[in-house]
Write a structure and sequence with these properties.
- With 259 residues, the protein is an alpha+beta fold.
- It has two domains: 89 residues, no CATH class; 132 residues, no CATH class.
- Helices cover 47% and strands 8% of the residues.
- The chain has ten helices and six strands.
- A four-stranded mixed beta sheet has the order 3-4-6-5.
- A hairpin with a 5-residue loop joins strand 3 and strand 4.
- It is globular.
């Protein structure tokens, strides 16, 4: 399979691949074939931008809806997974905080885990991906402070944020890992520390909501940015694990100590 970097025709959110998904859901397979041919005419992306929403993983997701994901596309996705895992291992070894794109649903390991979880039999690489997500539940040190392991120095747009932030959303935040780790448990796939990680993420989200006035309801105004005082309280109540797109942002001002 060719692995040329191509245009956004391989995005699920726009272009030919997204149209093919719509065609399949409408059971218009003739139109789906035309759009799939258009999306892949210049090859299939397996580069650093490949994800559940773009390139080979997105193509597998679409083809799987028609029970047509073959060995070639799955092998391409496996190469993407291997590259992402290797990058995550290097980052962990360096002891630096992760960027959201490493692990979120849209661009990272959470989306790849969700895709691998749909394969039958379950993909052999899935436990390694889940284990990387479990590591996010471990406290991490950044700029001399103890922070949640999913704390990122950049926002969803990739731009630096003073003090970094913790994202609680589904697309770019920890609600994504919480969901896929929980679904994996329900499917009988588990790795060491997975249940504890689910508890850590769920506790954080629960305490985040309770500390800003309870559950989020339609029509209720909920702060998007929460500064250091709330973050300190939340860090103090989380269990220690020893082994989205528009979510709540938890931010710490640059240079402040949170220990």
């Amino acid at each position: 399979m060719t692995t040329t970097t191509v245009s956004r025709t391989q995005d699920l959110s726009e272009g030919a691949l997204g149209m093919a998904l719509l065609d399949i859901e409408r059971r218009d397979l003739a139109a789906a074939r035309r759009h799939l041919a258009q999306a892949t005419v210049r090859g299939v992306t397996t580069g650093s931008n490949a994800s559940l929403f773009h390139g080979a993983p997105a193509l597998e997701f679409v083809l799987a809806r028609a029970h047509a994901a073959g060995d070639a596309v799955r092998s391409a996705v496996d190469r993407v997974v291997d590259a992402r895992l290797a990058a995550a291992y290097r980052r962990q070894a360096a002891g630096v905080l992760p960027h959201l794109a490493e692990w979120d649903l849209i661009r990272g390991l959470t989306g790849l885990a969700a895709l691998l979880l749909t394969r039958r039999p379950i993909a052999p690489r899935l436990p390694d991906v889940l284990a990387c997500l479990v590591v996010l539940a471990h406290p991490a040190r950044g700029d001399g402070r103890m922070l949640p392991g999913w704390w990122s120095p950049v926002g969803p747009d990739g731009k630096e944020m003073a003090g970094g932030h913790g994202n609680n959303g589904m697309a770019h935040g920890i609600a994504g890992p919480l969901a896929v780790l929980s679904l994996a448990l329900r499917a009988g796939v588990s790795v060491p520390g997975q249940e504890e990680a689910v508890g850590t993420f769920a506790t954080w989200l629960d305490r985040s909501g309770s500390r800003i006035g309870g559950a989020i309801d339609i029509g209720r105004q909920v702060p998007v940015v929460v500064t250091r005082p709330l973050t300190d309280v939340l860090l103090g109540c989380l269990p220690v694990v020893l082994s989205g797109c528009r979510g709540l942002f938890l931010m710490a001002p640059a240079g402040r100590n949170m220990t």
